[in-house]
Amino acid sequence: MSLPRSVKTSGIAVAFALMGANVAAADCGKISITNMNWASSEVVTAVSKFLMEQGYGCQVTAVPSSTNPAMASVSETGEPDILTEIWIDSAPAYPPLRESGKLVELTHVLSDGGEEGWWIPTYLAEEHPELATLDGVLANPELVGGMFNNGPEGWGARTTNGNLAKAADLEGHGIKMFAHGSGETLAASIAAAYADKKPWFGYYWAPTSVLGKYPMTKVEIAPFDAAIHLCNTTPDCATPGLSDFPTGKVVTAITPALQEREPAIAELLSKVSFTNEQMSTLLAWREENNASSDETAVYFLTNYKDVWKDWLDDSAREKLAPLLQ
Q1: What DSSP character marks residue 102?
Q2: Average pLDDT in the chain
Q3: What's residue 6's pLDDT?
Q4: Is the preceding peptide bond at 215 cis, omega within 30 degrees of 0?
Q5: What is the DSSP letter of 21?
Q6: What is the DSSP letter of 112?
Q7: Percent helix, strand and coil across the chain, each rounded to 5?
Q8: Contact, 140 vs 130, CB < 8 A?
């Protein structure tokens, strides 16, 4: 691993690099954890994986995934063992899996909740205040570039956005839906718009480094309506309607099989939680340093010792004592 200079000089970074080549003797077995395809979840996974391997002796496999495929996999195969950063309001398959006992909810991994919505750059809102509402956008499609920037395939919010677009008749008002191929290209489209102060309209969420770096104004869609939103999250919604996104409950869940065979890991993961301020800081650092999720985990372990030390049991805290000094 190649670490940014600001981390290379840290004793914990050296320890991390050395320990990565010599995982602790296995006290627990093999564990699989999702590596969802967006930045904050990647950081959650990297931190959790490190603690499980080095503190608890697990053999951890990070499985690339996204919300809907992960839910389908758990339903059909009972794997992966751990699902990180599930945005419940955009994951209609989650409640049935939890209620049927196929998933056990452990914690609010983003303790402040997540904020989803439709956004425009703040410079655009300042120049054209009417664009701060959906009615204003629909009346002036040319001012937002005639395009809605949607997330990639596999994102739960893509379904919600599609149903909202139908309810608002975006295309009938001259606004085409554009689906980005990845979260990275969606983020890059905001950066590109900011570079040239051009129109941009689309979906995003917080906490993210993007909304921290580029001031965005949330478009007022309509008052939140739980029934309408629930229908909008389902692909076969017969009556799409207009409703804002709720403040998102964002959780980590595990399979009951993992809870039974590795109770210490379940206890650990029930404590792994980040405030929006902490996560936004981590994501901004990651972007500024062009760092990987592993390098960002090192940064977190270096700078937030008082946070993560309390997640550990006594045995794991003893194993990781050199990193806590």
Answers
A1: S
A2: 91
A3: 55
A4: no
A5: T
A6: T
A7: 50, 20, 30
A8: yes
DSSP 161-220: HHHHHHHHTTGGGT-EEEE-SSHHHHHHHHHHHHHHT----EEEEES-HHHHHS-EEE-B
Distance of CA 288 to the CA centre of its chain: 19
CB atoms within 10 A of CB 318: 11
Number of other residues whose CB lies within 10 A of the CB of residue 218: 18
What is the C-alpha separation between 160 and 24, in angstroms, rounded? 43
Residue 264 phi, psi dihedral angles, 5° rounding? -65, -35
Contact call for residues 303 and 274 (beta carbons, < 8 A):
no
Helix (H) / strand (E) element for 247: namely strand 247-248
Distance between CA atoms of residues 269 and 82, nearest Å: 9
For residue 229, is it left (φ>0), alpha (ψ between -120 and 50) or beta? alpha
Torsion (CA) 130, 131, 136, 141 in degrees, nearest 10: 130
Task: Tell me, yes or no, if the pTM score tops 0.85.
Answer: no
Nearest partner of 163 among 115, 203, 191, judged by Cα: 203
- Does residue 140 sit in helix, strand or coil? coil
The answer to whether residues 233 and 160 touch, using CB atoms and an 8 Å cutoff, is yes
d(CA 85, CA 107): 10
Q: For Cα atoms 158, 165, 182, give the angle at the middle one, nearest 5 degrees.
A: 30
Which strands make up the sheet holding 82-87, listed edge to edge? 59-65, 30-36, 82-87, 250-254, 104-108
What average pLDDT score do residues 197-226 get? 92
Task: List the structure tokens of 117.
Answer: 């919505």
Comparing CA positions, the residue from 155, 165, 160 lying closest to residue 230 is 160
When pLDDT is cut at 50, 70 and 90, the band that residue 19 belongs to is low
